[in-house]
Automatic annotation (TrEMBL):
GO annotation terms (biological process): amino acid transport
Location of the ABC transmembrane type-1 domain: 25-213
Lineage: superkingdom: Bacteria
Pfam families referenced in this protein's UniProt entry, alphabetically: BPD_transp_1 (PF00528)
Protein name: Amino acid ABC transporter permease
NCBIfam families, sorted: HEQRo_perm_3TM (TIGR01726)
Organism of this sequence: Ectorhizobium quercum
Amino acid sequence: MQALVDQFFNLTIMAKTMPLMLAGLWMTAKLCAAVIVPGLVGGLLLALGNLSPRRWLRIPCIVFTDIFRALPPLVLLIFIYSGLPFAGVAMSPFAAVALAFLLNNSSYYAEVYRSGILSVAKGQWEAARSTGLNRTQTLTHVVLPQAVRNVLPDLLSNTIEVVKLTSLASVVSLSELLYSADMARSITYNASPLVLAALIYLALLWPVVRLVSRFQRRLAA
């Protein structure tokens, strides 16, 4: 039993490797900021494009959304980081990871927004237009607030997936949390840094998971 504790829950090793883990956590936070906020904005624009009555705008948005939802994020990441240099486009690990995850997650956000907009009853549009609001004003002040409220648990769930997805960045040697934990493991010959990384992820994401569950129960009620 003591050998198991020493190998997986060695507090001394955890304390010594904590600075490296915090540096990895900071990189994870920067990566999330570079993906989540632009992804939410880009997803909304894609959703509006998907619902546009203009064919020249709707079809490219639909194709974009379908392609990047279908492509596995790891395949997309490796293609951007290792494949594009053959075309003369070389990116830093951070830029490659941010771009790959942004393309992937903005398409998922788009589908969430689209379902939210479609969930708003047509009568809401008609009632708003009857008060003198134009289409843009109706969408901004009446439809979108209801749509976002309806799909808020899905938006939060997708954001949780983004945070977990950042662990794939270790594939291109970006020093995020998982990569830092694996480096600490290789230095200490001990699995405790990996356990510490898992505990950090749990501490970050468990409150958000509980928040999502609370929103889902409230919406169901």
